[in-house]
Design a protein that fits this description.
Length: 179
């Protein structure tokens, strides 16, 4: 099934002391490039965040207003592409693979979205495949997307989830890279 990818890479990395989390290197590959590799099957990929060096060609955009949070990032990213399915991933998912992304897309079924759970069982709304129209409608319902909660914004959607998996584990602290 055809899909577009929206990669969120605009956060401030405050728990990393301002170090650009997207450019952290794990096993010789930046976190951003790991996610871009996992989403390489997308028809179109847009990264929401400052332009950086990446291993493949992508489009770049910024949320409005800058630093407006992940829902503002989703709104900015949805302006790109036309595929009926959009895979949304944050740049801090170093263990996600192309097989995981394909599984999200093919398992969407009749749901509005299908996402990963991390190894603790936490649902990862920023590691999921969504029907473009459902995602756009949910974002439109909140009005100004600046500083809105992702969980509250997407609560109106019919979402399904994988079993807990390492692919859903994100990197929020330095210790997370050592796991």
């Amino acid at each position: 099934m055809e899909f577009d990818a929206v990669v969120l890479a605009g956060g401030g990395s405050t728990r990393f002391g301002g170090v650009d989390k997207a450019m952290l290197v794990l096993d010789g590959v930046s976190l951003l490039d790991r996610v871009l590799s996992a989403t390489a099957g997308a028809t179109e990929t847009v990264v929401v965040g400052a332009v950086r060096t990446a291993y493949r060609e992508v489009k770049w955009t910024l949320e409005e207003p800058p630093a407006g949070g992940p829902v503002a990032g989703l709104a900015a990213g949805l302006a790109y592409g036309t595929a009926p399915v959009v895979v949304v991933v944050s740049c801090d998912l170093p263990w996600i693979t192309a097989k995981d992304v394909d599984g999200l897309v093919t398992s969407l079924g009749d749901h509005d979205g299908y996402g990963l759970r991390d190894t603790s069982g936490q649902e990862q709304q920023l590691a999921a495949a969504y029907r473009r129209t459902a995602l756009a409608d949910a974002i439109a319902q909140v009005g100004d997307p600046r500083d809105k909660s992702v969980r509250r914004t997407l609560a109106v959607l019919d979402l399904a989830w994988t079993a807990p998996t390492r692919a859903g584990d994100d990197v929020d602290t330095w210790a997370d890279l050592d796991d």
